[in-house]
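User: For my dataset I need records formatted as: sequence, then structure tokens, nothing else. Please produce one.
Assistant:
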Amino acid sequence: MHCKVLLYAFLPFLLAVCLDGVCVAEETKTGSVIFIHVDGAAVNSWNACRLMKAGPDGEIGWDRIPRIGIYRGHMKDRLTATSHGGATTHAYGVKVPADSYGMDGRKPLRALSGFPGSIMHEAQQAGKAVGVINTGHIGEPGTGAFLASAASRDDIENIASQVVRSGANVILSGGEKYLLPAGERGFHGIGVRQDGRDLIARSKRQGYTVVYTREQLRQVDFQRVDKLLGVFAAEHTFNDRTEEQLEAAVQPLYSPLAATPQEMLSAALKILMKNHEGFLLVVEAEGPDNFGNVNNARGVLEALKRTDAAYETTLKFLETHTETLLITTADSDAGGLQVVAPGLSSGGAFPWIRRLPRRMRNGAPLDGVLGTLSPPFISAPDRNGQRHGFGVAYAAYGDVAGGIVARAAGLNSDRLTPTVDNTDIYRLMYLTLFGRTLPPFPDK
């Protein structure tokens, strides 16, 4: 009799469940997940952000995320990830070809758990609240692949339709033009949809509160709103062009009307935390990737400072919501940004006022604070009160493998290993949401 009692008591720890041939071991503690994907941001990018925001001796929010592991982001068919292939791996937990958007190339895809959909679809089916935030347009794959599947990432109208029709509790992004019929004027611009559908009007009929600006977002009554659609730009909330192009066009880095990542995250949490079953929130800062890919260092640094404010808010949230996991990474390094500091400091007669050269000796393009042939960036003071000048050199246009890390805080963050495969992002989220370990996630 006593043996039977002990067996039943420990059964949740011993039970193995097989889903389509994948065996998973039961755990007990579950919670919510905030996944922040900072597209294109590697360690070198964050080092530059730290210099600008806190100085060489300071700490930024990213530094205060306690667990860290080196990220391996290879795809099924190539070493460097694409945004849509990397996002699909994060959302499904399996390696896919680089040209995949919520699919295995052009074939339907099952998640590592055996579920015929992404981890966000599975969370929805389990009664959890879900939300996506993107500083790019609504079809950007870092969030879109969690809610949509397409044979091509260029099929943005189809992807946008799937995202809006997904029933996600929170959808905040740019991309208004992909939600309106061709020729129809919206808040930010002109629609381009060829099917004639007005997805914003449809969302309102489905109970969504719709906002278009950061000021409108601030005025939302979150006690009464359970479904929120934010549409903050016609395309991206930023202008991903070179410094010189932006100056010539008199365009800012970011739209002043658009909510910041921190503002969008704070709003999303007020809605998602109402669900007693927990939630999954996926956030993508798209700016570091797009600015990095055109070698706009000023844009990258501004994007990272905005993202770091979202980290600060999330870490504060975790202090009182301990049953929550924060996990963050990138899937590639946009442009291979590197800090170059050739002895420029405030110890002399302000030598940083002079222009940086156009290129390094090896031919690498070099950015200053205003782009090519401009003065260096100036760091925040170090512990001795000294400021330092630096330039930013680039290895390439486009994405490279780079020095990418994953970081984690909160529930189950101790399960983040020193080396993190891109499929492990899914495993750690799944463990936290559903309390089950999916092989070959290591036991600790």
